[in-house]
Specification:
Blueprint lengths: L4 E6 L6 E2 L5 E2 L10 E8 L11 E4 L5 E5 L2 E7 L3 E5 L9 E2 L1
Antiparallel strand pairs: 1-4, 1-7, 2-3, 4-5, 5-8, 6-7, 8-9
């Protein structure tokens, strides 16, 4: 990746969902704009706050989609991320908004 670009794969659990009442909501159901979680698979040289392996929250509708060796990824700028969740923290909760 170049500059401030981040390559993300959408988490599989962002497909079908269940409501609190147990009703299955398919991934194709239209709802209000929904942010998605994904895992970072590549970062550019100018990316400062995200590293490979982090989980990030973003709007999947505004991103560019690419396919690499049969796997679909999204490419976006670092500034388009809304949150970063990392397991390796020195202090705090691991979720940065």
């Amino acid at each position: 990746m170049l500059f401030d670009r981040v390559m993300v794969r959408i988490s599989p659990e962002d497909g079908e969902r269940r409501s609190s009442g147990g009703i299955v909501i398919p991934a194709t159901a239209t709802m209000a704009k929904r942010l998605a979680w994904g895992e970072v698979f590549g970062v550019g040289t100018s990316v400062r706050h995200v590293k490979v392996g982090d989980r990030v929250m973003f709007n999947p509708e505004d991103q560019l989609e690419i396919e690499v060796q049969g796997t679909t990824y999204l490419v976006m700028r670092e500034r388009d991320l809304h949150a970063v969740a990392t397991e390796l923290t020195e202090h705090g909760t691991g979720l940065y908004l």
